[in-house]
Amino acid sequence: MEQYFSATQKMEQEVMFPSLLRGVFPQQQDGAAPDANGHTDLYERYQILKSIKPVVAKGAASVSDQNPTSTDADTSLDEGVDNNLEERLSHHVNGLQQVLTDLTKNTKALTRRYSQILEEINLGDDQSSS
């Protein structure tokens, strides 16, 4: 989770002009040209990634704040509610970990692409002044 927050913080610090991401689509993994049909541009992804951060932070805080009382735990054990709680928890934690990994990769890719855009702008400025 720390990697996700670190990547998001870096994205927020580096992306000073999100509007530069409008109309720029993510590069596809196989090196093929990006398909603009049905995909969100990097500006929309930036907005989504930025809006998800407080939700993740709030969720992480609420999980650490929840501390079941011993009577609640005793009651659920007495009732035999579910024998495979550990398996279910493991499944959900693995799913959450995969989502956070994907969010981190998307955030890092967006930040890299933004840096490339800035470099292209700077190169264009250098060539026009020569």
From TrEMBL:
Keywords from the named record: Cytoplasm, Nucleus
Subcellular location: Cytoplasm; Nucleus
Region of interest (Disordered), residue spans: 59-79
Protein name from the UniProt record: Mid1-interacting protein 1-B
Source species of the chain: Nestor notabilis
Main location: cytoplasm
Phylogenetic lineage: Eukaryota, Metazoa, Chordata, Craniata, Vertebrata
One cellular-component annotation, GO: nucleus
BP terms from Gene Ontology: regulation of lipid biosynthetic process
